[in-house]
Amino acid sequence: GAAMVARALWVLLAALRAGWCLLPQSGYLHPDEFFQAPEVMAGDILNLKVYYPWEFLSSSPCRTVVFPLMTSGLTYWVLKSLQQLDICSSCINSYTLLVSPRLLFTIFSFILDYSVYRLASFWGADPWKALVLLAGSYVTLVFYTRTFTNTLEGLLLALLMVLVSSRKSSGHSAEPTSSSLIGVITTAGFFNRPTFLAFALMPLLYWAGLIVDSQKSIKTLINHFLKFILCACFTAFVFITADTFYFTSVSLDDLYSTNKSSLIDVIVQLHDKMVVTPFNFLSYNLNPHNLALHGSHPRVTHFTLNGVMLFGILHILAIGAGFKMLKKYVHQLMLVRWCYRGPPGLLVHSEGSPTLLLFYFVPLAFLSLFSHQEPRFLIPLILPLVLFSASPNRAVKWKLLIVLFNLLGALLFGCLHQGGLIPCLFHLEQLIHSPASSSHPRHYTLLFAHTYMPPRSLLNIKKTDVHVEVIDMAGAGEETLCQTVEQRASNSTCSDCHIFIIIPGTVRATITKCGVSFKNETLIFPHLSMEDPPQISVLSNGNWRSQLGLYILELNR
C-alpha cells in the first residue's frame, strides 16, 4: 500500500514539474539561466537582438558552445524551421523563446528520476521513497527545469553514478561497465563546467577501486584505463574543435583555400587558433581578484547556508551522519581494528552508507575552497543526498518539515524571486509587436533599474530593428537614475518616442524624486527583489501589493 501511494505521489509530482514548466514559472533565479545558453543561441540562430556575455566573446571564450547548441540551439532551430516551412507562422514569440529550452531541460531532468530508480537498490535505499524525495524537492521542480550549466552538471553526474554502480548479473561482485562511456561523460562534464571534476572525483575513485578489486589480469586492468583515456581525449578533441570554429569564426573552406592547404596544414592552423574553454575558465576563476568581482563569501557558506537553503533538513541530517561516521572510523583507528566489507577502503556499504556521504561531502569541500559560493553550485548533490536520505528509517519523522520547506522554496524561487521581470518582458513584447506599432513604427526606450539583467531575446527583436533600445541601469543610484530619466524625457529629436521605466515597487519612490510625470503605469505582481527587499513595516500598512510588485511606467514627455 505504501509503495502504491508513493508511486501515485511521484506521478503527480512529475506532472507538476512538466505542467509548471509550461505554465510557465515566473521566478527568475539568476541571469546565468539565460545568458549561458538561450540568449546567445537566440542571437546566433534566430538573429535576434541580444546581449552577449563576456564568456562568449571571442576575446575571452570561457564557455563551451557545444551544450548551448545541443539544448537551446536545437529548440530554436526547430522553431525557426517550423516558421520557415509555414507550419507555424507565429512560432517565435516570447513564450516559446522562454519555454522551449526549459521544456527540453525538464525532459532531461527525468534522467535524475531514472538514475535514482536504478541506483536505489544498489545503495540500499527505498526506490519510491527516494523518487518522492527527489521529485518533491523544489530544487528539482525549479532548478532542474531551468537552463543552467549546473543543471547539466547534475544530469551528467547522475549518468556517471549509474555507470560506476553496476553489478554483475549474479549480484555478488561489482563489474565495471563501459570505461569508454565513463571517459566521455567525465570529459563532457569538464567542458560544461570544470567544477564537474570535484563531483566526479569520488565516483571515479570508486570505479577505479572496483576495477582493481575485480580484475585478476593486469592486461585487462590496463585495457579499462586505456579505453577511458582514449575516449576522454577524443571527446576533448570534439569540444575543442567545435569551440575553435565558433570563437575564431573560421570555416574549413577558409582553411583549405589558404594556399591550397593540405590536411596537415589545416591541422597546424587549427592548432594555432585552438580554443580550450575550460582552461580559460580556470585561469579566470583561480584569480581571487576576478572572483571578488562576482562576490566573495566566507569559505563555510556552502556548509552552513547554501546546503540548508537548497536541501533543508536533509543537509543537516547528512552533516550529523557524517560526524557519526567520522567518529566511528577515528575510534576504529585508535583501537587499530579496521574491518573491510564490500569495496575497498572507506567505500563500503555499511550502515549509513559512508560512500554516499563521501559522494556528497567531498565535492562540497572542494567547492568550499573558492571564495565565490552560490547555492546553485550545489544542485548536482541532490542525487547522492536523496539516495542517502531514503535508506530505511531515515528522515521519516521529518516528513511534514520536508513538505513545508519545499513548498516554501518552490513559492519563493519559482514564483516570487524577481517574478515580475519575465511577465514584464512578455507584456512589452506584445506592446512592441502590436498591430498599431507595426502599421506606424514607433521608437521604444526600455529602461530597467534595480532588476536582474533583462534577457533581450524575450522581446523578440531582430538585430536589424533600430526602433527598440534597451538600457540596463542595474542597481544605479538615485542621482544617476534621475539624470538618465530626465535626459530621455527632454529629448526633442524624437517625435514618436515611448519611454518605459521598469522598476520594483520598493524603489518606486526614487523615480518620483526625478521631477518627471507618467501617463501610464502597469503593476505586475508578484515581484520580490532581495537586493531591494520590502520593509516589514511597509508591508503591514496595506501597501504590500505595491511593495511586492514591478512597475512599468510610461514617461510623459
TrEMBL record:
GO terms for cellular component: endoplasmic reticulum membrane. The keyword Lipid metabolism does not apply. Pathway: Glycolipid biosynthesis; glycosylphosphatidylinositol-anchor biosynthesis. Its EC number is 2.4.1.-. It is a multi-pass membrane protein. It is found in: Endoplasmic reticulum membrane. GO terms for molecular function: alpha-1,2-mannosyltransferase activity. It holds the Pfam family Glyco_transf_22. InterPro entries: GPI_mannosylTrfase. The chain crosses the membrane at residues 152-170, 190-212, 224-247, 303-326, 346-371, 377-396, 403-428. It comes from the Eukaryota. Keywords: Endoplasmic reticulum, Glycosyltransferase, GPI-anchor biosynthesis, Membrane, Signal, Transferase, Transmembrane, Transmembrane helix. Residues 1-21 form the signal peptide. One of its GO terms (biological process) is GPI anchor biosynthetic process. Belongs to the glycosyltransferase 22 family. PIGZ subfamily. This is Mannosyltransferase. It comes from Irena cyanogastra. The lineage of its organism: Eukaryota, Metazoa, Chordata, Craniata, Vertebrata.
